[in-house]
Structure prediction request, 375 residues.
Amino acid sequence: MNKPIIRIPAEDLTRQYQQIRWEIAAAIDTVLPSGKYTLGPILEQFEHEFAEYCGAKYAIGISNGTEALHLALLALGVGPGDEVITQANTYVATAFAVNYCGATPVFVDIEPQYSNIDVKKIEEKITAKTKVIIPVHIYGHPVDMDPLIELARKYHLKVLEDASHAHGATYKGKRSGGLADAAAFSFYPSKVLGAYGDAGAIVTNDDELNHRLRVLRYMGQEVKHTHLEIGYQQRLDPIQAAVLRVKLRHLDFWIEKRRHIASLYNQLLQDLPIEIPQEAEWAYHVYYLYTIRCNERDQLAEFLAQKGIETQKIYHTPVPLQPCYRYLAYQPQDIPIAYDYANKLLNLPLFPEMNDEEVHLVSQAIHDFYRGKGQ
Ligand SMILES: Cc1ncc(COP(=O)(O)O)c(C=O)c1O
Prediction:
């Protein structure tokens, strides 16, 4: 008899939907009959609940994570001629948001342990034009924020967390979103907290920023039809807010499932010539992605694909080396660790509804690959 063909996707949003479909339907059904399809009470409730979850005063719903970064930078005072420091290994949106303000992104290499911005390498990049630092809690592991904030305060810079990978992650017991002047979140569907479409938010403790961001996201209006400044049409939709309210109630449970899968992978993969993710003792990693590094990345990905196991090579080109940033003339030697890791990283399947058997199958296939190689 033929062996059954396995198919393990890198991510699968449909399994989760099947578990919560009635809650989702009921939540959407509170929005549709209300006739209130922009702004309104459901959005306000979500904003309140998400701010509370992050341990912060305010959350402002924005149409997506890219615009959350953009509007947050504008509200923090970034404009033409300014510089904003961020890390080389992020999603390109972190950098594009800087360009949308007419400013220039300045890229810093990463530290080798958690693949986050190397705080020790930031100071040499600070100039008179620097306004903001954007640490990205990459793959769900928080950045070491204390020394970063200390450095920012020394130079009177603002700090904006890009927390798009790190809903629920904690740094020294405090949740992401409440660790700096402001934080931008994406709720892109596959994120740790994901909507059913595009969605995002900015979180802050600052009264003035909160006020300015509400004006900026709604065509510069405080009161309808009076436009105080050139604003944007970038509100979070109440239908997505209703979905997010349901999902927020399950978030901690789903994060626990992610952590369980990650710890099983850690156990099963420990004796192989691959580097597995690490977690600092001050961190609570939410494993948005389970990223391994190995020299034979492409062959391994191909081998797994043939076995029906899907993997992803996200961020296989560091942002400063993307064609759109040729004008900044970065070279691989400017960001040696990010460059090296980009050629080695592979994301294994991980989503909260993945079962232990699937984790075992993926791990077994990786063992088979290395056994075959050794022969
Ligand atoms: C680190 C990071 N920043 C920003 C974004 C942008 O978010 P969105 O896709 O919601 O615009 C993403 C989303 O993929 C991201 O991963």
